[in-house]
Amino acid sequence: MEFVRFKLDNTDGLGGAHHRYIQPPQIGYFVTTVDKMGNINVTPVTMGTCIAHKYFSFTLSNLAVDEWDQEKYPFREGVKQGYCNLLEVPECVISYYGYPLLRESWIAGMPIPKGINEIDIMGLTPLPSEIVKPCGIAECPINLEAKILHVNKLGDRWTNYICEVVNITVHKTLEEQNKNGPLAGHGVLIINPLFEIMTGKGDTPETSNFRLVYTRLDLSKIERCPQDIGCKDYWIGSFTQWIQDETERGKISAAEAGQIFDLEKKWAANRNPEQNSEVKNKLTTLLKKVVARKS
Which of 65-69, 155-159, 212-216 has maximum average pLDDT? Predict the structure, then answer.
């Protein structure tokens, strides 16, 4: 195999690499914020996702301002309105949108004057929140009320937010579909979500300018991981349980399983790859046999 390598330095450049090598297709959602005077902003976002259970992370790209007070500083182009609002009120609502709101997702990204409510411009409906100050969006099937826990500046143009989801509101029909039916348990995938894959130039009478390009999942091609590898009755399980179950499947003999357990103990006693290379290589060879494809 041949390779092309890109060396990155301490700037925000990627050394000639395309940024889509790092940023895969990401699901789209709105982040609704409010300033201290009650003015609402809705920002469409794709950079971010759930990072652990009820914790969510998203990133805004903008001209960063260390301190913001709209009574002291005039708003200027290049500063995300959501960024300004989160400095004043560190709460938000994350609202997943699906294919029916594709046009609205583009409208929300227009250079609408600060303080003018994008929900009104889009023709959508505010959804009162139960815990946080910003509202959600009624037409969005999933609204996550969240409080900001940590703010991190990334490079010269990005601000990352880690937040805790404190309340969830979903359409009743979505809840019913998620409990019963062909897509039960699929959650957000049921809403036919949009995934940003690139920005591309158009070729229409209206404009040849750049636009976001979305894709949607083909739910007929959802794939389940192999049935013949892993613990039978546990999600991941322990090393001991895994090897025992593979032995029951006939992948390895009882003698080989015993050898694996013995080698694992010897490797755990000294994980130095130079000093204990023979044990490491023998254990690796046997584990490769465990996961080998059926002939």
Answer: 212-216
